[in-house]
Amino acid sequence: MLLDKGYLDMKVDKSLDLFDEIKYLKKEKNTVILAHYYQDADIQDIADYIGDSLGLAQEAQKSTANIILFAGVHFMAETAKILNPSKKVLIPDLKAGCSLADSCPADAFAAFKAEHPDHIVITYINCTADIKALSDIICTSSNAVQIVESLPKDQPIIFAPDKNLGAYINKKTGRNMLLWNGSCMVHEIFSLQKLIKLKIQHPQAKVIAHPECEAPILEHAHFIGSTTALLNYSKKSADKEFIVLTEAGILHQMQKSSPDKTFIPAPPDNSCACNDCPYMKLNTLEKIYIALKYEQPELLMDEQLLNKAKTPIIKMLELSAKFGL
Ligand code: 13P
Ligand code: SF4
Predict the structure, then answer these.
(1) pLDDT tens figures, 193-223
(2) Is the pTM of this model over 0.85?
(3) 3-state SS class at 228
(4) Which domains does the chain have, with CATH numbers?
(5) Which of 36, 138, 168 to mutate to test the pocket of ligand 1 (most atoms within 8 A of CB)?
(6) Ligand closest in space to the Cα of 101
């Protein structure tokens, strides 16, 4: 442990080839780099596995490496630690949080849950370990619909923290789940007006969207799914043009898999051309190099909390395996 936290101010020698250095350190320290699709292209290119939240959790659970370096946000690294507690889990920037996770504080959620004691709590993986510990089953955008549908139709359900994903599942399954009022700052700022304009400019384009987007945006989508589902749809589709409504990092894999197709990032309701998650984008190659070299910052967890949060995640993974996901 670098007690003086000196690694935070560490400057990286500009002459280093970070791709080579990271490759070397990774092998030397038997480390696996797991990266979410929302990471910068160069981080995706040095990762051993790139995936959505479900794929990353599955990969973390089965990893045999000594160290897991998680290029994503805090709740994802935390999930990796919960699923594989004997491993050292590194996160390049401890400040890589999540607005959706922040929108669900544990004490307020515990009070909400206590008001509805007959409800089962299904919680989206984008939340803190404290919230997971208060949940019955975790889900991701890849398996949320199937998990909800696996429960009896008359079972009252609390769904947290994403109200947009919850509303989408309610619509899709005909349920009336009680929704926590949380949302993702990235997915809720897509501009409906700009989307309509883009559709007019690109009449042949298929609109593909993540279910964290708001309902009026989702109404325009030809396909709705998790980041992996959106990527797979774009690969298999015979269409050549796509308007993409999720964080812009996914475009790297879309373009790599289908170089002959055009991917247009839908713009947010501000002056930016595309929509980046400021938390995901805190990670850089330099920070990954430092994290690998000094094995810091390490994600550490209270053992009791870890065990409590593990049960609903394991339930999700078991159900996902049953659904063939
Ligand atoms: P998925 O990884 O399930 O597609 O969710 C996207 C997301 O917002 C991750 O932060
Ligand atoms: Fe959280 Fe949204 Fe960023 Fe995903 S994209 S990490 S849900 S703020």
Answers:
(1) 999 999 999 999 999 999 999 999 999 999 9
(2) yes
(3) helix
(4) 5-99+280-301 (3.40.50.10800), 102-185+309-323 (3.40.50.10800), 190-265 (3.40.50.10800)
(5) 36
(6) 2
